[in-house]
Specification:
two-stranded antiparallel ribbon
């Protein structure tokens, strides 16, 4: 709680930077898993990655501009979209050869990650409520800048991986087949 008693948004920026780092780890892990496993991401997995990137953008805005209910709402909305896609994947018939990580399939881990992101954003919105919707214009710490750069690289790598796998429209046809 002492983090929130300092200057407006100082502790919040640090905690948001930590969560943004965890989003980066999730993005890099999903790319590495895709590269090691099959080399092809299913269209719904690509939607999950897009939701993770959008949640990361909300966190990035909190790190760069300071806490804002709008940024937290962006994170919650993206996390809820990721939860919906994870549930959709859970309803599809399970592949007998699907890779497991500690006994769970990757879409189950994504469900947990999106749930944590949504709970985090809702909790932080409650704790940061007294600062309101003000963009605190001040320099970002070295840690914050490093995490924002890592997120940008991870998001661009995710987009490049999707383009290399799918091209422009191939994955959309695969998505229509899963509907």
């Amino acid at each position: 709680m002492a983090l929130f008693l300092e200057s407006p948004g100082h502790g919040s920026r640090q905690i948001n930077a930590l969560m943004l780092f965890l989003v980066c780890v999730g993005l890099v892990f999903s790319l590495a898993w895709q590269g090691m496993a099959a080399g092809y991401a299913c269209p719904l997995c690509t939607l999950q990655r897009m939701a993770l990137v959008m949640a990361g953008v909300g966190l990035l805005l909190n790190v760069r501009l300071g806490p804002s209910p709008l940024h937290y709402a962006m994170t919650v909305t993206a996390a809820l979209a990721g939860i919906a896609v994870s549930c959709w994947l859970a309803l599809l018939p399970a592949d007998a050869n699907a890779s497991l990580l500690m006994g769970l399939r990757l879409h189950s881990w994504a469900f947990v990650m999106f749930g944590v992101l949504a709970a985090f954003a809702l909790l932080m919105q409650t704790l940061d409520r007294r600062w309101g919707d003000n963009a605190i214009k001040r320099s970002t710490s070295l840690l914050g800048t490093a995490v924002m750069t890592l997120f940008l690289v991870a998001a661009l790598a995710s987009a490049a991986g999707t383009v290399m796998d799918c091209g422009v429209s191939t994955c959309l046809k695969g998505l229509a087949a899963t509907l």
